[in-house]
Amino acid sequence: MADQHIVKQFDEELDEMRATIAQMGGMVEQQMTNAIMAISRRDEVMAKRCQEADSEIDAMEDKIEALTTRMLALRQPVALDLRAILAALKIAHNLERMGDYAKNVAKRASALAQLPEVGPVNGIVRMGRLTHGIIKDVLDAYAEPNVDKAVAAWTRDQEIDQMYNSLFRELLTYMMEDPRNITACAHLLFVAKNIERIGDHATNIAETVYFQEKGTRLEGLRPKSDRTSYAVVEPPEADEAI
Amino acid sequence: MADQHIVKQFDEELDEMRATIAQMGGMVEQQMTNAIMAISRRDEVMAKRCQEADSEIDAMEDKIEALTTRMLALRQPVALDLRAILAALKIAHNLERMGDYAKNVAKRASALAQLPEVGPVNGIVRMGRLTHGIIKDVLDAYAEPNVDKAVAAWTRDQEIDQMYNSLFRELLTYMMEDPRNITACAHLLFVAKNIERIGDHATNIAETVYFQEKGTRLEGLRPKSDRTSYAVVEPPEADEAI
Predict the structure, then answer these.
(1) Hey, are the CB atoms on A234 and B183 less than 8 Å from each other?
(2) Which of B115, B189, B190 is opposite residue A232, by nearest beta carbon?
(3) Considering only CA atoms, which of B187, B119, B121, B139 is closest in space to residue B28?
(4) Which of A48, A88, A202, B45 has the most CB atoms within 10 Å of its CB?
(5) Is residue A222 within 8 Å of residue A157, measured between CB atoms?
(6) Looking at the complex, does the CB of residue B79 fall below 8 Å from at least one CB of chain A?
(7) Could you give the angle at the alpha carbon of B203 between the alpha carbons of B32 and A226, nearest 5°?
């Protein structure tokens, strides 16, 4: 009876851990939506809200660390349970990073509000929506859990990288056309990079779900499609320039 | 006797874990030195070496994950030992991120080699040296362990942020002066940001050392000094421009 009682308690703790991850994931999704809105509307109030929400997300990571450390110390889990606990720790860390990047995206709204509007903001919004969809999918993959869904989301990260590549070039071209665009576009370069990093963390979560369920690594490195580190964009020739 | 034997084995495993962290830290230090050299000399061979070294650093993180998971499962540690194991896991993760950022710095050497040289590269080299010093200090703080050294390194991260602020503005000014500088300076913006992120991860390690030793959080949030998200840099007025 005493043993059964302990097992039941432990199951409840594991459930609480998973529910906390789901709640934290929901907060990161909301943060992402708000950050993109802050940038597209150059909305400083929304940017401030993102900044406040970030500390709530940090607090959730602390909560998951406390829960998992307690379980490791008191329940001394092995095999599947140990894997689930270490997976939750990793996922919480990834979600915290995603929240942080979203906050950094939102922060730039106030600089953008003081600068001339530039076109590539629309591309940023599209990239943000795509990334938000992928975050939703990996969180569903964790909650169900569903390995196929995790792998599908993991593969779609390439689409984010491709959008980032186009945006990188587009932003540089805007800068070359008119020096008054340079500061806004430099901020948008970082916004685009941060969204691309959020996508990378989403794929990390997909990998963790896979490992938790299968006990092996997701095989075959996904081809990295962010090629911008090598990009050379030339300004138009002097005689072609207006 | 059997108990003593188990205790001795566990101590050896903890020693191995710490030695592996030290080795991984040394690799990240070397990676940092090589990445800065690749950028300052626009040296594509060195950049390629950094790329190869990154997978060795990743393998070290895997090794530490395997070691710690095994200890958690077989030794079921509590209190100080549990804290040391979770600290090693966190530090390995931070070192992996630092290695990754350093690789990303080095990667941009090949784009830079095809572009006109720009002045702010010297500032990048100084920022890289400062960051390298802080990495060395937090690794020493972990190895000894020495809480005071960890706190001192943690505080010095502000210097990195300040250098990053100046570089951000300097790079934007170079872009505004001549559109031919734009691509090189965009790459250097990311290089500077990556070094700043490496510094952030070094402070995370300092915080982990503090928590491992004291069991409490490093009090008082260090003031964040990266203010570039809010920076508005204006091009010179048309009539002032050459």
Answers:
(1) yes
(2) B115
(3) B139
(4) A202
(5) yes
(6) yes
(7) 50
Q: Which residues contact B39 (CB under 8 A, 6 or more apart)?
A: B105, B106, B108, B109, B112, B121, B124, B125, B128, B191
10 Å CB burial of residue A55 (0-12, 13-18, 19+) is: exposed
Q: How far apart are CA B177 and CA B179, in angstroms?
A: 7
- Please write the tens of the pLDDT for every residue from A126-179: 999 999 999 999 999 999 999 999 999 999 999 999 999 999 999 999 999 999
**ipTM score above 0.90:** no
Cis ω before B145 (30° cut-off from 0): yes
Q: Are B162 and B126 in contact (CB under 8 A)?
A: no
Q: How confident is the model at residue B239 (pLDDT cuts 50, 70, 90)?
A: very low
Number of neighbouring beta carbons within 10 Å of residue A146 = 16
Write the single-letter amino acid at B29: E
Minimal-distance CA residue of chain A relative to B94:
A93
- Please state, in angstroms and rounded to a whole number, the distance separating the CA atoms of residues A30 and B78: 37
Strand, coil or helix: what is B32? helix
Q: pLDDT tens digit string along B64-118? A: 999 999 999 999 898 899 999 999 999 999 999 999 999 999 999 999 999 998 8
Q: Of A165, A177, A193, A229, which to mutate for an interface test with B (greatest number of B Cβ within 10 Å)?
A: A229
Q: Is the pLDDT of residue B237 over 90?
A: no
B242 has pLDDT over 50: no
Q: How confident is the model at residue B56 (pLDDT cuts 50, 70, 90)?
A: very high
The dihedrals phi and psi of B230, each to the nearest 5 degrees, come to -100, 0
Pick the CATH number of A2-225 from 3.40.50.720, 3.40.50.10800, 1.20.58.220, 3.60.15.10: 1.20.58.220
CATH topology of domain B2-230: Methane Monooxygenase Hydroxylase; Chain G, domain 1 (1.20.58)
> CB–CB of B72 and A79 under 8 A?
no
Report domain extents, chain B. Answer: 2-230
Look over chain A and give the mean of its residue pLDDT values, rounded to a whole number: 92
Q: What is the pLDDT of residue A219?
A: 66
Other Cβ atoms closer than 10 A to A119: 11
Q: Angle, nearest 10°, between helix axes A121-143 and A79-107?
A: 160
Q: CA B102 to CA B81: how far, in whole Å?
A: 31
